[in-house]
Specification:
With 469 residues, the protein is of the alpha/beta class. 30% of the residues lie in helices and 14% in strands. Helix 8 packs parallel to helix 11.
């Protein structure tokens, strides 16, 4: 296996079903579809945390939140946690990052360029970093300085303030021209990096798009690309929410949005789809840049998101819950001649599994610390499944943990009490929470035992130290 150029394309908060190749009836994503047609799409991929920083730290380190200690959008990826970027560097790769990474907490007023030594230490040789859209106008970055020079920065900041005050979700077109929109900027800078690359080493280029994460601010023609009246209805708010036991109703996972926002979900969805299409167009520009350099035929591409988006399902928007729309992610791997084309895998895989897959593709040394499992046995059809269970974690004042199998989903709080139990085979829209149902008690106990066993394998409660075997 010769070392390929590697391109990692990560969106922020994109649902697994929000690609036309995933069967979406309204969205058009020809470039994501192209990657799927030329590679393998994983329909059951999940994040190990439905929130940005923990998911991204796990993606880079191959560890779970309970191992690296980042359960929320706070702190930073620990200095001693090796990354796949470092392992690829060690075998001759030039590692580069353009766009949003979010390996450390984004603080208003901080110059992101001052954190480049930290990013270099995480294994990234070239860094052109920007924050996500919610703080893009209030942090100093290469992009913010360009906006300032063009007279766009204050317009963006004031627009965001107005959206934050909106009682209906703040859904209207961005004041930025399409060519200066955050994800257009990321796509343009990625293209420039490829066009100017003259190093003889293979590259690993990580491109982090800030969208389709809210605000709902698709620019220009992308704001009008999809008609709200054509969007699909959200998954209903289960009738039983009203009669859940008080202990469960108190969980934020079952909080329902105000009517003013619920009534605007169709507009939110249409705008969100426009942001995805803008990203899709920029993926096309990046692939074209590789093609012009003659590198596309041997380019290993990974396309994924850090977590999903509720988009009105269950009366919620954003993420931070273990419902399917929040915890499942799009995942496509493409490498002509090495990965079968137009393949679909229903194997249970997690975002941590990207780490060993990338290192193996780049001929790097295996990690003794990574807890993810390489996808190559699935790609080579040596196995039909890698794991029986998927795990996801988050903190809402206290740790919460999800266990997901092909059929069942269990979520427990810090006391070990179940607050979610769904039969995904018979209830894929998660309308019937079996956690308070006495007749499901035996299943709940069995799943709790399986979760305890899986967490033991994943060294729950242990920081995985350097050199750990």
């Amino acid at each position: 296996m010769t070392q390929p150029h590697i391109l990692i394309l990560m969106t922020d908060q994109q649902r697994a079903d929000c690609m036309s190749c995933a069967g979406h009836a309204q969205l058009k994503t020809p470039h994501m579809d192209r990657l799927a047609a030329e590679g393998m799409r994983y329909t059951q991929a999940t994040t190990v945390s439905p929130i940005c920083m923990p998911a991204r730290a796990s993606f880079a380190s191959g560890l779970y939140p309970h191992n690296h200690g980042m359960w929320a959008n706070q702190g930073e990826l620990p200095a001693e946690d090796e990354t796949f970027f470092q392992l690829l560097q060690s075998v001759g790769y030039c590692t580069a990052q353009v766009g949003k990474a979010h390996f450390y907490q984004h603080q208003v007023g901080v110059d992101m360029r001052s954190r480049e030594p930290y990013m270099h230490a995480r294994g990234l040789e070239y860094v052109h970093e920007i924050p996500g859209p919610k703080v893009a106008g209030r942090m100093i970055s290469y992009m913010a300085e360009e906006w300032r020079a063009k007279g766009l920065l204050e317009r963006y900041v004031e627009d965001y303030r107005e959206r934050a005050r909106s009682e209906t979700g703040g859904v209207w077109p961005s004041p930025l021209p399409v060519e200066d929109f955050l994800d257009s900027y990321v796509g343009r800078k990625a293209v420039e990096f490829v066009e100017r690359y003259e190093d003889r080493r293979p590259m690993c280029l990580f491109v982090g798009f800030g969208g389709p994460h809210e605000p709902w601010d698709a620019p220009g023609q992308y704001a009008e690309m999809y008609r709200p009246e054509d969007t699909a209805k959200p998954t209903p708010i289960p009738d039983e929410y009203a009669v859940l036991p008080d202990a469960l109703k108190a969980k934020r996972d079952f909080a329902v949005l105000p009517d003013a926002i619920l009534g605007n979900v169709a507009n939110i969805r249409a705008n969100y789809y426009g942001k995805i299409s803008l990203i899709d167009d920029n993926i096309g520009y990046i692939l074209e840049a590789f093609e012009k350099r003659g590198w596309l035929d041997d380019l290993f591409v990974i396309f994924l998101s850090d977590h999903g988006e509720m988009l009105g399902d269950h009366g919620r928007i954003r993420k931070s819950t273990f419902h399917e729309a929040s915890v499942r992610i799009p995942l496509i791997l493409r490498w002509p001649g090495r990965i079968p084309a137009n393949e679909i895998s229903e194997a249970l895989v997690e975002i941590v599994d990207i780490f060993p897959t990338l290192v193996e593709a780049g001929e790097g040394k295996p990690s003794a610390r990574c807890l993810g499992r390489s996808l190559w046995p699935l790609i080579h059809k040596e196995r039909g499944e890698l794991k029986e269970w998927q795990v996801s974690e988050i903190v809402y004042g206290e740790p919460r943990i999800m266990l997901r199998s092909r059929r069942w989903k269990l979520a427990i709080d810090a006391r070990g009490a179940a607050f979610m139990l769904y039969d995904l085979e018979h209830d894929p829209e998660e309308q019937h929470n079996l956690a308070p149902v006495q007749a499901a008690r035996a299943v709940q106990l069995q799943l709790s035992e399986s979760l305890a066993s899986r967490l033991k394998e994943l060294r729950y409660g242990q920081r995985v130290s350097p050199g750990a075997a």
